[in-house]
Design goal:
The structure is a homotetramer. Chain A is of the alpha/beta class. Chain A has one domain: Glucose-6-phosphate isomerase like protein, domain 1 (Rossmann fold, 3-Layer(aba) Sandwich), CATH 3.40.50.10490. Chain A has eight helices and five strands; from the N terminus they run αααβαββαβαβαα. Chain A has a five-stranded parallel sheet with strand order 2-1-3-4-5, with helices on both faces. In chain A, α4 links the parallel β1 and β2. In chain A, α4 runs parallel beside α7. The longest helix of chain A has 22 residues. Chain A is globular and about 50 Å long. At the A-B interface, α1, α2, α3, α4 and α7 of A face α1, α2, α3, α4 and α7 of B.
Amino acid sequence: MPEAPVSVTDALALIVGEADGLDSRVQGDTAAAIDLVERAGRVFVHGAGRSGLALRMTAMRLMHLGLDVHVVGEVTTPAIHEGDLLLVASGSGTTGSIVQAARTATEVGASVLAVSTTDDSPLAELATVTLVIPAATKTDRSGSASGQYAGSRFEQALVLLGDALFHALWTRSGHSADDLWPSHANLE
Amino acid sequence: MPEAPVSVTDALALIVGEADGLDSRVQGDTAAAIDLVERAGRVFVHGAGRSGLALRMTAMRLMHLGLDVHVVGEVTTPAIHEGDLLLVASGSGTTGSIVQAARTATEVGASVLAVSTTDDSPLAELATVTLVIPAATKTDRSGSASGQYAGSRFEQALVLLGDALFHALWTRSGHSADDLWPSHANLE
Amino acid sequence: MPEAPVSVTDALALIVGEADGLDSRVQGDTAAAIDLVERAGRVFVHGAGRSGLALRMTAMRLMHLGLDVHVVGEVTTPAIHEGDLLLVASGSGTTGSIVQAARTATEVGASVLAVSTTDDSPLAELATVTLVIPAATKTDRSGSASGQYAGSRFEQALVLLGDALFHALWTRSGHSADDLWPSHANLE
Amino acid sequence: MPEAPVSVTDALALIVGEADGLDSRVQGDTAAAIDLVERAGRVFVHGAGRSGLALRMTAMRLMHLGLDVHVVGEVTTPAIHEGDLLLVASGSGTTGSIVQAARTATEVGASVLAVSTTDDSPLAELATVTLVIPAATKTDRSGSASGQYAGSRFEQALVLLGDALFHALWTRSGHSADDLWPSHANLE
């Protein structure tokens, strides 16, 4: 719980400081994660609340790479099948709808790439690969893992990690920025 | 343009490195920005593509603070009126739909808080307050301002700055994390 | 199951025919339904898939009337409280997420207006008022209640009934069409 | 402008009455419209406000048929290319963003299927096929073409016509309802 008013720049310093060193703190097999995306027939992303928005940012970039990407819950998102990849995020690894989606995905033969704050959870048990970002979960209001509100630190790290996955995939694709540009939506 | 495959952790190091020092690089009157949000009758957020997703993350937190928040383009978003605030983001400050929305907002007597990479743009001219994040814009593919693709660096900074605005507003509200919890959506 | 190709105009004749007489087939206390909307502090709409889209059409019109309306699942939708109204639709009245939302709404003291194909369901038990549209449900593929696919007939009726609720509310408001126009979104 | 309060059932009678005979009033080459959808590589739908919601209802059904469908404005919607189909709706045929999208589509070699209240408009000029529903447009508040508010009559007809297009396509596909069921989203 904050004790006194904090300026925007001090808040920004806190936030940037909590992201510092993220590259050495992420746990899990990131090479296997890249492999899952590259081998996927289609990629489905699914997250609740702000985690879902962070994953949408990643999803848009994967679309720019030429992948066939869908956001769970959108009206034109089809059923997931064998060979597809479900990319999910849940700080606690216990969010009901996310765990259920992961279960369905594994049942049909799809892979599951999970991002979480722990690899000891129902979600991690189902996931093919789990990437762990040590950070406060949404319902942890003790203030011990972050000076920020609820799951903010995790959600910010999720945005950065999603873009790191994209960056790694992009550099492996051999495409230049100009090559990717024609993939950007042209009807808005 | 990337020259060789980069691992996820190296990509993450690049991304975290580009966010480093953001607190001292942000330009503009952040205190005035906070003031605009606190005085606003209602807050409307508007951004294209990934900037729009970043602003949605901010919008959700402002809702948690008890503000009346709307995302432009959602079906239940009403007309903006005098006394409301339009929070927009555009790397270049020239995105047509964003500039047009800013113009409408000023015409009806609403305030405009803009986040951009420059304060020399049609958007900045219309905005009540512009916060500037020095970073590559979406269409800058020269690679000089960022080692990342297109506007990624700006969009990441927008997520972090939006959460810094929230954090500053939260600490000024005098509310604890437990106080805010009941604002979270309870119907999903 | 269709036995032979049908032209668009023949399909349209089938669809219009299935909507015919809807006004005399709707069951439930429509006057009480209107009363619930008029007395509501805020209106929340919630439906899955195409039913959710139909309710969004209604939600937009209620916003035009000046009501404070939210779509469950949107990022800026706050918690529902005592005195609010939850407007839900479920053909079967058994959709898990919808029934759960109705339960939460009643627990906090909000009203629930349900549209369904039956008033003998978990949803109808929870609802303050249930309006019944006799029509096939989404999972009824027997073809006995409709010549159309799945829940199409119900979803079409839901669009029409939602607009009828709006029309009745509008005529009771005393406002002209010109009065409502300024409520339309002005930032797109 | 309504002169006296109307009950929900009377409103519903008005609405159903305005839909009556729609099958004989729709103008344009519906067989060519079906042909455009069947030959399309991918289908993109685009409409503003309630027309956009109506088209999303159609889009979901086309996805159930196994088509590759995208809603313009969603984060994972890619660029439209030669051989794709843009399905748009605009009562007046002059909505700026819709006309612009139709222009882009034709420029890249995609087809355009338009639904409108007139075939004498900038949109109809660009469209490969235009289906005309005689009905009031959104900004026609004279009350001469419909007893309902703004574009309601057109938007309702758009829902019904979209479902008629689906029904015709379905009956031509030779698939049973059970065949289509596995296409329904399985991750929610």
